[in-house]
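Let us work through a complete example step by step.
Step 1: write down the sequence.
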Amino acid sequence: MAAAPPAAKSRQTQNKVLIIDDSVTVRELLSMTFRNAGYEVEQARDGEDAWKKLNEDPTIDVAFCDIEMPKLNGLDLLSRIQEDQSLTHIPIAMLTSRGAQKMQKIAADRGAKGYFVKPYLEEVLLDAAAKMIEGENLLAF
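Step 2: predict the structure and record it as tokens.
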């Protein structure tokens, strides 16, 4: 059962999520999940593509980002975002197959607000998106 979109914006304005993953399959599946829940969805195929989209579109409310990607990986993208004050308000959750506590700590230190190990449940990501849009940090150490 899909969760209702968060109420962070008015009914006329959908929340926008950016899905960042080098896997087309993952991007499409997550995009479908978020669209079905009422989100507007943007996609990026790697960190460089995400960096460009984040700088071009100030209306992105939340992002879910793979860690291991070509060109610019997710952790390096987090570092770059933290250096740009115009982007630090966007909550980023990491998606990865690496569940190690050390990796979660690195992501948190670089500004991630969430960390999810594949495979993950759609409901969990939708709930996380709503909480992060409302300002909650799901990855506090």
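Step 3: interpret the result. The longest strand covers residues 16-20.
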